[in-house]
């Protein structure tokens, strides 16, 4: 989230699209209820299904899954056509006036530089025109036909309300109503919040779905302001923490990146991370990259990381591929190229697409270690459960080791919520049976590995034997020790650069924040964005003061928010070019002539003069990008692409199937179904009664929603002679499931490009372990393909067929 | 935001009301209480409810009850109906508004309404099995319940359910145990959107006014409060978007009244009846002395069944 849950109460308009907050985030949804009560805010829900969120919405518009970009670019076009743009914001705070290189173009659904064989682009033309001074060329009048604004205008020109209806199936009058309501927030005194979740990410163009809304929010001037923002609703209580800490194969903590094998040396690595400003006098914050990176290396390897050995840069693994995401890992497992797997707090048998492939991959492993508080299906993947897990146990040789862990209520530590708040919590119970904290288990594995490397040597033992491990009890690092390490400390006296006799931070003291980090090895700090969370003043995450000055919704003394306890990112943009709040009733920070101050920690240097330093300091331009240059694999603008399995062809580019830059592994393309064989558009989702695959283990939750079902419209039920509450079979090119049918008015057939499209809704909470009735998950059916940029699997749009069946014999 | 009730102190505290505050007691009389407690009420705002069933879960948890893991019946409702364990259930109704042609998904938390004029209590033949406190709570005393099921017949909302395990009637107590120590009901505590709030009946009516104003600003011209006078008003009230059509909310009765049979049997005729019973008792005793014990004929039995609406 750019903003926070509590800030949603400040909005005038909530748009829930690509998510279902009432259903999947009911506790956070209270802030939507609050906005309605507080400011008379309106709620719009755009979803293929009339959801629980829609049940309390002012306006609901149906949309075919996987067509969000067409809808959103249609709204952008509507805003441009109707002069509903916050011009001052757009001209000053976005890259709208920047000139793009000659040669960049978009034609027949493809951007310049496409290589069909590699399913990838040469992105060299997706770049600004740079002047002789090295700065980007700007046309403040927006007259130049090659400025970003005019390219955007041209790019969205095809998405007329008629085209939106043709692609999305959204009736034109509903689309226009939504567009009109959204466009009103272009006023500096009205704002809109975008709440989205996996309904946008789980598509082969998931990142671009989010981009499209971010662009809309920018031209409306809704980023950086109270009640605005792009608010990703995270699906697990600590999934934000997972990405912050870098638990992705291509990341290290704080969104720094793992080197690739082309970056063999420290200097080669740093050479592409200079982030020279693209505008005069602009602050480009990533110029501090080296300080954060060196502090991370010092946390990892302590005294073994020295200036002489480039702070042990060689110890870091180097990627030979863009990333070992879950799809790649399981594809490798499937090919027999990966034969051991540690599965910590994850249930891939039900979570990863194409379950048949997942089962086959797990069956090829030599060993599988499952660390989990619950008996997961993954740990039992080898067990035959009839229809629900039809495997031949005798043919599976994988050794499975289960290590029972504690659940969140038995741990002390911090969880990071969607709003980037690190909230400390205390163990509420003791672990049952043999369950152990994950940290204890990891420490045990590490201690044993280290002993083995020390004894036997082996290939490259240094990263293991030299790992910094200075915990009081090496067998179980404490949550406080780990949190302090993430914050960072001074390893030597840190002195004032202007007065070397003046000690700013004494050796051994916790750092007050990342601004104190050094690139010379005098500080450590494993996650720069968390620096400030555990200082000499104590554990800031454990703060529990819920006072809120002037009821701004900031709650700045409650817990701690990264970065630097900032509650709203880009908050400099809440004030106009001169530093005055766009909306005095929603003041956040203002320029008082000498410095920035207000309700939130300024997201800019306190003395950075307005009109000189742009507000988006994490970009070397200082502005937000409507055109992302070469930073996304599938295009500098979002474009409408159909899901890989779609009931209709892409009317904007009939020859293009799916997202042309999305990676498809060998063998998976053949497993995509077509609309002739599989006529119905399926989608997957959560239900409020359950949390993923956990709560089916809890008796009460199981009783509230006991049995797997699929949802279909009354029209499809009639066509297929399906009775509500009776059994159906649903199958795709990859698998088949049996379920109860829920026939509902909440799903209606859509008309897309003249064709009737029926939607089949498939919730995800059932398996073959736990207290609920045995059932299936949608992953038995879904295709093995992910988003072009981050490989989140396409769970939200795929094709199935459905038929009534006799129920199983009891 | 409606101000939430503060958490209770950790040390035990005396109950704020009890036996001395009874205003009604089934099949028996109570002396008028010395004090009048403030009337309390729960307000359920159907326009804020997202149907998450947190109230159902909280009710099961607080009362330490468990519902059996059932089946899907082609709807999201589960369990399908109130049971001796599920003292509250969410009822989901899909309704096409004929004026706008838009679908409205109406979600209503069903459970005891705590009527000011409780039909269950009036119908109950077991002395003290159903009681009403002066704060409005209608509670069951299971030790005294005889499992006859008359309370179900007496209830205009069809709420109590008889347990097959102990053959006693169960319904929502408005968390009388929590209210007795200054807390609101467990469902209200768990509700994430404040669709359920709890306070004095006056506060709830005031809060409802604000909500109705908001709903009218959103085009719900018939938004209103459900506090049906036919049962003397209730201590569980609803804010409805369409207060003119309560029946679209899973058959919420438009004008609930206690069944006339119960009224006739236990109402005005009761006192006349008691006089008559006294006289008949005297006569009967004489008759017994003279003629020996009476016998109940089949016809008598059938008449009695018909009178109470029971039988079958």
Q: Could you characterize what this model shows?
A:
The complex is a heterodimer of chains A (810) and B (312). Chain A has 810 residues and is an alpha/beta fold. Chain A has 21 helices and 31 strands. In chain A, the strands form eleven sheets. Chain A has a six-stranded mixed beta sheet with strand order 25-27-26-31-24-30. In chain A, helix 4 crosses helix 8 and helix 14 crosses helix 16. Chain A is globular and about 85 Å long. Chain A starts with 12 loop residues before the first strand and ends in a 6-residue tail after the last strand. The model of chain B has no long low-confidence stretch (mean pLDDT 91). In chain B, the strands form four sheets. A four-stranded mixed beta sheet of chain B has the order 9-2-11-10. A three-stranded antiparallel beta sheet of chain B has the order 1-5-6, with no helix packed on it. Chain B has a two-stranded antiparallel ribbon with strand order 3-4. Chain B has nine helices and eleven strands. Chain B folds into two domains: 240 residues, Alpha-Beta Plaits, CATH 3.30.70.20; 42 residues, no CATH class.
Question: What topology does this entry show?
Answer:
The complex is a heterodimer of chains A (810) and B (312).
Chain A: E1 13-17, H1 21-24, H2 30-39, E2 42-47, H3 52-55, E3 59-62, H4 68-81, H5 87-93, E4 106-107, E5 110-111, E6 114-115, E7 120-121, H6 148-156, H7 161-168, H8 172-183, E8 192-196, H9 198-201, H10 206-219, E9 230-232, H11 239-244, E10 251-252, E11 256-257, H12 266-271, H13 289-301, H14 326-334, E12 340-344, H15 348-351, H16 355-363, E13 367-372, E14 399-404, E15 413-416, E16 421-425, H17 438-456, H18 462-465, H19 479-487, E17 494-496, E18 499-505, E19 534-535, E20 538-539, E21 560-561, E22 589-591, E23 596-598, E24 680-685, H20 699-704, E25 709-713, H21 714-720, E26 727-731, E27 736-744, E28 750-752, E29 755-757, E30 759-763, E31 798-804
Parallel strand pairs in A: 1-2, 1-8, 2-3, 8-9, 12-13, 13-14, 24-30, 25-27
Antiparallel strand pairs in A: 4-5, 6-7, 10-11, 15-16, 16-21, 17-18, 19-20, 22-23, 24-31, 26-27, 26-31, 28-29
Chain B: E1 22-25, E2 40-45, H1 54-62, E3 89-96, E4 103-110, H2 119-123, E5 130-133, E6 138-140, H3 150-154, E7 161-162, E8 169-170, H4 176-179, H5 186-190, E9 196-200, H6 201-217, E10 224-226, E11 236-240, H7 260-266, H8 268-291, H9 298-308
Parallel strand pairs in B: 2-11
Antiparallel strand pairs in B: 1-5, 2-9, 3-4, 5-6, 7-8, 10-11
């Amino acid at each position: 989230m750019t903003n926070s849950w509590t800030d949603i109460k400040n909005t005038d308009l909530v748009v829930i699209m690509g998510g279902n907050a009432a259903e999947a985030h009911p506790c956070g949804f209270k802030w939507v209820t609050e906005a309605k009560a507080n400011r008379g805010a309106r709620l719009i829900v755009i979803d293929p299904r009339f959801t629980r969120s829609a049940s309390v919405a002012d306006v609901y518009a149906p949309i075919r899954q996987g067509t969000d970009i067409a809808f959103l670019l249609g709204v952008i076009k509507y805003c441009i056509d109707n002069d509903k743009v916050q011009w001052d914001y757009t001209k000053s705070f976005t890259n709208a006036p920047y000139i793009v290189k000659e040669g960049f173009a978009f034609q027949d659904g493809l951007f310049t530089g496409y290589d069909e064989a590699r399913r990838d682009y040469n992105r060299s033309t997706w770049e600004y025109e740079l002047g002789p001074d090295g700065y980007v060329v700007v046309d403040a009048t927006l007259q130049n036909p090659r400025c970003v604004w005019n390219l955007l205008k041209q790019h969205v020109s095809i998405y007329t309300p008629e085209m939106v209806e043709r692609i999305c199936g959204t009736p034109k009058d509903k689309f226009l109503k939504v567009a009109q309501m959204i466009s009103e927030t272009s006023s500096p005194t009205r704002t809109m919040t975008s709440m989205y979740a996996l309904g946008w990410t789980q598509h082969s163009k998931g990142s671009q779905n989010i981009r499209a809304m971010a662009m809309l929010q920018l031209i409306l001037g809704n980023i950086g302001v109270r009640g605005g923002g792009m608010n990703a609703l995270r699906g697990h209580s600590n999934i934000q923490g997972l990405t912050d800490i870098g638990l992705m194969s291509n990341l290290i903590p704080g969104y720094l990146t793992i080197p690739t094998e082309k970056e063999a040396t420290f200097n080669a690595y740093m050479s592409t991370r200079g982030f020279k400003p693209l505008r005069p006098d602009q602050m480009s914050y990533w110029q501090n990259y080296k300080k954060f990176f060196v502090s991370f290396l010092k946390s990892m390897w302590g005294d073994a990381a020295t200036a002489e050995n480039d702070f042990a840069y060689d110890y870091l693994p180097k990627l030979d591929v863009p990333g070992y995401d879950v799809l790649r890992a399981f594809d490798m497992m499937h090919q027999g190229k990966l034969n051991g797997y540690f599965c910590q707090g994850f249930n891939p048998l039900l979570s990863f697409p194409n379950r048949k492939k997942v089962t086959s991959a797990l069956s090829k492993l030599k060993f599988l270690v499952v660390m989990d508080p619950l008996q997961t299906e993954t740990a039992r993947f080898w067990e035959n459960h009839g229809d629900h897990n039809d495997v031949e146990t005798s043919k599976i040789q994988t050794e499975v080791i289960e290590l029972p862990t504690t659940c969140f209520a038995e741990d002390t530590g911090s969880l990071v919520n969607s709003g980037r708040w690190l909230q400390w919590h205390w163990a509420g119970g003791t672990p049952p049976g043999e369950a152990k904290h994950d940290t204890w288990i990891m420490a045990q594995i590490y201690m044993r590995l280290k002993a083995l490397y020390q004894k036997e040597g082996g290939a490259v033992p240094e990263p293991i034997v030299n790992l910094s491990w200075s915990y009081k009890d090496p067998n179980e690092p404490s949550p406080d020790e780990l949190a302090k390490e993430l914050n960072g400390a001074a390893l030597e006296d840190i002195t004032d650069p202007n007065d070397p006799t003046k000690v700013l931070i004494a050796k051994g003291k916790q750092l007050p924040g990342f601004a104190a980090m050094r690139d010379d090895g005098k500080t450590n700090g494993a996650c720069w964005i968390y620096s400030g969370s555990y200082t000499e003043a104590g554990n800031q995450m454990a703060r529990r003061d819920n006072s809120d000055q002037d009821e701004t919704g900031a709650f700045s003394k409650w817990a701690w928010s990264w970065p630097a306890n900032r509650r709203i990112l880009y908050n400099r943009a809440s004030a106009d070019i001169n530093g005055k709040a766009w909306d005095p009733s929603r003041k956040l920070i203002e320029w008082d002539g000498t410095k920035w101050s207000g309700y939130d920690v300024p997201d800019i240097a306190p003395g950075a003069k307005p009109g000189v330093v742009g507000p988006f300091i994490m970009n070397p331009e200082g502005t937000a990008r409507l055109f992302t240059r070469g930073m996304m694999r599938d295009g500098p603008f979002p474009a409408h692409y159909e899901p890989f399995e779609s009931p209709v062809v892409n009317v904007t580019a009939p020859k293009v199937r799916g997202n042309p830059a999305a990676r498809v592994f060998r063998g998976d393309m053949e497993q995509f179904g077509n609309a002739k064989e599989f006529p119905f558009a399926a989608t997957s989702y959560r239900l409020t009664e359950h949390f993923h695959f956990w709560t089916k283990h809890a008796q009460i939750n199981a009783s509230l929603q006991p049995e797997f079902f699929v949802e279909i419209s009354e029209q499809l039920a009639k066509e297929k002679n399906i009775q509500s509450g009776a059994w159906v079979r649903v199958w795709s090119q990859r698998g088949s499931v049996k379920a109860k049918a829920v026939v509902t008015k909440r799903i209606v057939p859509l008309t897309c490009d003249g064709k009737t499209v029926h939607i089949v809704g498939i919730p995800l909470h059932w398996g073959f372990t736990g207290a609920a009735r045995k059932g299936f998950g949608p992953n038995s059916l879904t295709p093995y393909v992910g988003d072009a940029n981050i490989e989140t699997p396409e769970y939200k749009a795929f094709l199935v067929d459905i038929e009534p069946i006799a129920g199983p014999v009891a | 935001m409606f101000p939430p009730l503060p958490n209770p102190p950790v040390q035990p505290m005396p109950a704020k009301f009890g036996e001395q505050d009874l205003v009604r007691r089934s099949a028996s009389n109570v002396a008028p209480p010395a004090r009048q407690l403030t009337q309390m009420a729960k307000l359920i705002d159907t326009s804020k409810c997202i149907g998450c069933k947190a109230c159902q879960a909280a009710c099961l948890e607080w009362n330490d009850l468990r519902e059996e893991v059932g089946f899907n019946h082609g709807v999201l409702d589960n369990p399908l109906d109130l049971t001796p364990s599920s003292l509250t259930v969410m009822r989901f109704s899909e309704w096409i508004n004929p004026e706008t042609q838009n679908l409205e998904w109406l979600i209503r938390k069903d459970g005891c309404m705590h009527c000011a004029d409780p039909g269950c209590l009036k119908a109950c033949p077991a002395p003290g099995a159903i009681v009403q406190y002066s704060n409005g709570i209608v509670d069951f005393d299971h030790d005294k319940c005889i499992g006859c099921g008359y309370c179900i017949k007496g209830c205009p909302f069809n709420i109590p359910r008889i347990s097959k395990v102990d053959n006693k009637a169960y319904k929502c107590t408005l968390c009388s145990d929590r209210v007795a120590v200054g807390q609101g009901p467990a469902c209200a505590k768990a509700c994430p959107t404040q669709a359920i709030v709890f306070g004095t009946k006056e506060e709830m009516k005031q809060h409802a006014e604000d909500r109705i104003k908001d709903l009218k600003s959103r085009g719900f011209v018939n938004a209103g409060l459900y506090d049906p006078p036919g049962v003397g008003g209730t201590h569980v009230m609803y804010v409805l978007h369409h207060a003119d059509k309560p029946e679209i909310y899973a058959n919420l009765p438009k004008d609930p009244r206690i069944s006339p049979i119960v009224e006739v049997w236990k109402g005005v005729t009761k006192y006349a009846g008691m006089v008559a019973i006294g006289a008949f008792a005297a006569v009967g005793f004489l008759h017994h002395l003279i003629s020996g014990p009476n016998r109940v004929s089949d016809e008598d039995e059938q008449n009695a069944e018909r009178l109470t609406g029971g039988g079958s």
